[in-house]
Amino acid sequence: MEAGSAAPASDRTAGERIYEFLGRLTDLPFAIRAGAGLVLMTVILALVESGLPGGIETVALIAIVIAGIAALTLTEGRPALVAGVVVIVLFGILLTYHGLLAVSQTGITGLSNGAIYALGAVGLTLVYGILKLVNFAHGDLLTFGAYMALVASVFWGLPLVVGIVFAMAMTALVGIALEKVMWAPMRRRGAGVLQFVLMSIGLAFVIRYAIQYVYGTELRTLGVDNTSTIDFLGVRIGQTQGIVLLVGLLILVGTGLMLRFSILGKRMRALSDDLELAETSGIDTSRVILWTWVLAGSFAGLAGVFAGATTQLQPELGFEFLLPIFAAVVLGGIGDAFGALAGGLLLGVVVEWSTLLVASGYKSAIGFIVLIIVLIIRPQGIFGRARSI
Amino acid sequence: MNWADPSPEREATGGQPLLETDDLVAGYLPEVDILNGVSVKVREGEIVTIVGPNGAGKSTFIKTVFGLLRPRKGSIMLQGESIAGRRPHDITRLGMSYVPQLDNVFPTLTVSENLEMGSLDRSTTKAQIDRMCELFPRLGERRSQAAGTMSGGERQMVAMARALMPNPKVLLLDEPSAGLAPAFVDAIFEKTEEVNREGVTIVMVEQNARRALAMSDRGYVLDLGQDRFEGPGRDLLDDPKVAELYLGGTARIDAAEADDSEANGPEEGPTRQDSSTV
To answer: If you average pLDDT over every residue of chain A, what do you get?
Structure first.
């Protein structure tokens, strides 16, 4: 702030003054800013809940917020930890109002939705990171996967597990085929960003209407049991939802480990950092790109089957997931695979928790409010590094 | 330490060249050639530096040799085998590595992971990383640090270490001293000489021409996409014509070099017909 050289106070617009004020705020110590943010979040929540919970719960709430501020003072410079502390405090506050059962119930639903987002997001973010391709057709790969499972397990009558594997394999094949006939030749000819974006939007429509042409617009189900529930420590979990949660989290943890420790995962991250440097370092980049499409495609297929199993199949299925998947990617830091995994789960949980406060019809708006707030604080996303922004 | 060859030859003449380009023509845009016929010979164990004014095609030359650009004409032979038109990752398997000029590390990967990316044989990766950390002790202290958080000089070391991971016979360096603090420039040139003493042939392109030529066995002066002069590094430095035209005058000092070569540029004078070698 060049206060000395600035125009006299009376000449400045209100906007300029607000900016100057905000500029001074960012000079405050991190602990004070983070603490103030946490208190602000608590006050807003209390207003939405119309007052404090009262009695021992109010004492607990205040204790949780103070513990949260204490924890935040230790997290400076580690955005992932900040996000973790905020989520835990949020959990604690909701607990004091709604009790463990309701918060766990919505949290588990949120995690299972979040697993679907994360499965979609990790493929989308890897493809973006490596090929700089913003693939708007990614959502329709989910739809394709769901319909492949329908073909195998409903039309052909095979067991659902076989249907899932079939769906994953077919979607991976589509990913590879598109790479070979569309994306790789376009890259070789030096197509620009806009061409790639338009091609992917066009491709999204082609896939969606091709599915509609073949299978019609009627709602279909995968014929899974959506009514049975499992009681787990008093929390009622839908059987299908439980399976989605369990399998989804297992695969996501496996993916995280693969990216961190396996040679292929390290190479994927290297390509994502710098494709040409990876090639000149001796990595066969075409092969790693194909494996990336296998991963992105099969995960999109799996996410599609999960989405179809917990709801219903229709040609717009994947498109409806595209925005939350993009949000998860951006929330985690675009191009960062670990960020996409965490961003998906985080988004799923926070959105589902919001149904405790406002009608569930508003929940997609809540997801984007979270996204906007995070991006105002950290434009590069929670895990992203402040580079090319 | 044993690098590429247990008995490195230091002969500057005789024998089949390790790397040879003949009449190389290449460019980025259709119909526009940046290289207009570059013929360079590099023998085993040599340090060869390619200097020249900005826009002479130095970087283009090194990129073409390493397969980042397809040559339009001419040949590139590595150990008697043609590598023109081959992809860079294939060329690393034939014993040649490349260190790009800037942005030459994977910023989100740790130092160890960066080095691992250069390994072509997974069974030797660990041992090779240990060796690199011996050669560059600074890296040994920071194995698990993300490369993007390091200084320019440290990154240059990571990049060089990664290029050395597969035990190359030839190392191509694109302006290794570009943008580095003076202390690191010395360190990088010293490491380059050390690596060369272990038997790795070095081909580098340098803006810092005096310093690079002084330590080179031979040098080439590139101008307007052609090799104009060739000779032992010292001779090129002492040659008044080369100095006047391409090194910014004999009396100037290294520090002013980068600006000078830009300001003087390749002059279209009668001396340009002097393409016979020194």
So the answer is: 89
